[in-house]
Design goal:
By secondary structure, the protein is mainly beta. The chain contains no helices and eleven strands.
Length: 115
């Protein structure tokens, strides 16, 4: 599975960004996708996830501001980030995992900087 992320950038606080991750390759398994983020000097943390049934989960720090969605083909996951804060500054990574598999797949990351 290959993941390509896009949509990062530098914005002012209060603005919005939309991240997109496209999965290709062996994506036919029942799977979930998620967005993680890692700020300098900090551990990678889950920002939002969406399951095969489109159930969603959000970190408390982004609830009410971020929205994760999955396209009909279930190979593209978007993260709409509203009301961005400086503390949202991080490298954002897309993750793909097959249900029941212990091997996740990660994208290369896209940088989000909020000033």
């Amino acid at each position: 599975v290959q993941l390509v992320e896009s949509g990062g950038g530098s914005v002012q606080a209060g603005k919005s960004l939309r991240l997109t991750c496209v999965a290709s390759g062996s994506t036919s398994c029942d799977h979930g996708m998620s967005w993680w983020r890692q700020a300098p000097g900090k551990e990678r943390e889950l920002a939002a996830s969406i399951g095969i049934d489109r159930s969603t989960m959000y970190a408390d720090s982004v609830k009410g501001r971020f929205t994760i969605s999955l396209d009909n083909a279930k190979t593209t996951v978007n993260l709409l980030m509203n009301s961005l804060k400086p503390e949202d500054t991080a490298m954002y990574y897309c993750k793909f995992y097959c249900i029941g598999s212990t091997r996740p797949y990660w994208g290369q990351g896209t940088q989000v900087t909020v000033s």
